Here is the input.
Amino acid sequence: MSEMIDIIVDSQSYKVQNGSLLIDLLIKEKIKVPYFCYHESLGADGNCRMCMVEIEGQKRPQIACDTFIKPGMIIRSKGENIEKVRTDILELELINHPVDCPICDQAGECSLQEFYMEYGLHDSKISISEKVKHSKHLDLGSNVMLDQERCVLCARCTRFTDKITYTHELGIIGRGDEAKVTTMPGRKLDNPYAMNVVDLCPVGALTSKDFRFAQRVWFLQTVDSICHGCAKGCNIYIDHNKIKYQDDVIYRFRPRRNDNVNGFFICDAGRLSYKQLQENRLESAILNGEKITQMQAIAKAKELLAKHKENITVVIDANLYTEEIEAILAFAKELNAKVCSPKEVYRDESFKDDMLRSSNRAANYKTIERLNIDTKEPDSSSLILNFNHPQDFEATSVINFLTHNRLSLGLSLPIAAYSENEGTLTNEDGFTQKCEKAIFKNVPIPTIIEHLIRLRR
Amino acid sequence: MSQHTREGSITSDHIKVTKRHGNSFRDKLYLPAIYDGVKVTFKHLFKNLNNINDIETLRYPEEQPTDITQRWRGLHRLTHRADNSIACVACFMCSTACPSNCIFIEATQRQDGKDEKMPASFFIDTLECIFCGYCVEACPCDAIRMDTGIFSLTGNKREDFVMNKEQLLSHKGAFAEEISCARN
Here is the structure.
């Protein structure tokens, strides 16, 4: 490793590694520097020219993203000169921009908007009618929409398909005013991580077809969570909103940076899994196909538990939070019940790839292993308590605790989904991570722990 | 505790002393002030008794007000484009600006190629609306205006006061042109 050296940024001294990128230091120390093309996962490209800084001894301003730190550097990131340079470059970026922020989904989280408010605030010298026209709302495939007019040609999306997914679908063709992002002829954007280009795009050129026009981003509330799609445990943001007089709804999942687990990205399957989470929810208790009240359901469950004192089996879903699994184990011990969590149903070799997707599609499988829970199918028992396990089991009587509607006989009680509850998960690499409670429903559905408390009374 | 320290930090040069009125003997008597007030009342009484036909009252509803001006904020309307389609692009600026959160919009893809986005539904709950006009100020497309001159709204039930997109589009502007100045 190279040695640590001192450099000065805005008359303050910093200790950094010799030869590292200047922009990484600026980002790390939260020194304001505008940039479009640089991204920590994609490296420097140096095409947007926004991250200009003054380096003492250099004639002209230099871009921070392609400057390697050398001993004794003195850098200025503020000042009249450098702000003038940034304003001029921003004006260049905005020459052909259509300024259609009112209909742009990126508005509110757009780098162009932020930098314009910070460094621009200039009047355009070009009228809208003179601007170069390109295609708008092109469907690139994989739920990605392209607006070539809004693009600043930072090439983050093309570098993503070149360096991260190695699928090379996107490229920039043409020169000068005519340069635009497009797919290779006859090809669509088609890879399991394609929607990450929407997050990568600093402007509104690439937007999600799934989120298109659903909400303005400033209405959304963001909560930290973990994707439940597989055992990888990718970190996500849950963006949700409770519209007046309506219920709390998730509008999208976004990847949350965690260098230990998922880096910057999530797969499209995980990103779109919020839909299954919200659709077809079990909201009231059901006994043999007929709706009953929660009180009746609890009474019925108690009756069944009293009737089948012996030979009870508890089946646990490996997607539940660790706290819930432990509570269920304690409850099973009181009942003298056998506990199992059949694992075959979670295996999906077709889902696996060498990036983020794991063939084990249970988010908390590591905890099932750690607690030594039997992973075989249950033996014939007189009563089965199924805590949201995806399989159905044969028994004299069955009590299901389910998040989603399912065709099953016996008694079914609704339970809160992971977004309506908080807890921890341990991913397949052994990282234990916390999910926050995101959704506060108008009529809350009880959690497993609340059900267990009622059953004990 | 914090209050105490805050008070302690205020010095005499921070305090602006305003001279109080009403401390003179004449003011404390109150009678001259009462006389001044009653004088105005009686002046109007005698003036109106002398010329009873000039009193400015309105036999509403047979007589309708004629003094509603262009900048008076009446019931909302949604403007049109030259081809009579809706001008609104569903940018949600009005509902963002609305202090009483009474504008409910659902956006959808616009198919006629004029713009990308339009409202699928647009509701204003006029019972919650405080007629502040912020929505008009916020609109970048001149798509919502309050220049209809409609000042009274009647209905038999609460739902009648929730204006939908079609109702808002059907309201006519009382003063200015029908068509949006910003979208055509």
